[in-house]
């Protein structure tokens, strides 16, 4: 059985700028409570650090544990709001994990 190999080219600060710009500013914060707007305003400081962390994580084959944590929020679907089954859970990730993805 042939094994398949994949090559990922290293990410760059410029790519991080693009990804940060694409994030929706009005989305909810994850468990870290850092708003997306904060990352957009500080993207020129954060982009080189983020690209370095992502590149090192890929080289080491390690996904940071803190990026695996999610905040689960119940969203009301319909019917009686006192009945728990009338809610659906959504997972709110921190935006760093979205950028990493």
Helix-strand layout with pairing:
Layout: H1 13-22, H2 36-41, H3 43-60, E1 71-76, E2 87-92, H4 95-100
Antiparallel strand pairs: 1-2
Highlighted features:
101 residues, alpha+beta, two-stranded antiparallel sheet, 12% strand
Structure description:
Helix content is 40%, strand content 12%. The longest helix is centred in the middle third of the chain and has 18 residues, at 43-60. The protein has one domain. It is globular. The model has no long low-confidence stretch (mean pLDDT 85). It is of the alpha+beta class. A two-stranded antiparallel sheet has the order 1-2.
- State the distance separating the first and last CA atoms: 29 Å
**Quick one: overall form?**
globular
Strand order of the largest sheet: 1-2
Individual helix count: 4
Number of E-type strands: 2
Tell me about the biggest sheet? Answer: 2 strands, antiparallel
Short description:
With 101 residues, the protein is an alpha+beta fold. The protein is 40% helix and 12% strand. It has one domain.
């Amino acid at each position: 059985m042939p094994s398949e190999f994949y090559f990922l080219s290293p990410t760059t600060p410029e790519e991080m700028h693009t990804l940060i710009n694409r994030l929706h500013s009005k989305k909810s914060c994850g468990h870290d409570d850092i708003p997306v707007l904060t990352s957009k305003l500080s993207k020129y400081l954060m982009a080189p650090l983020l690209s370095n962390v992502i590149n090192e994580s890929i080289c080491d084959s390690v996904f940071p544990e803190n990026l695996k944590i999610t905040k689960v929020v119940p969203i009301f679907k319909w019917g009686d709001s006192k009945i728990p089954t009338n809610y659906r859970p959504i997972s709110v990730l921190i935006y760093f994990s979205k950028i990493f993805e």
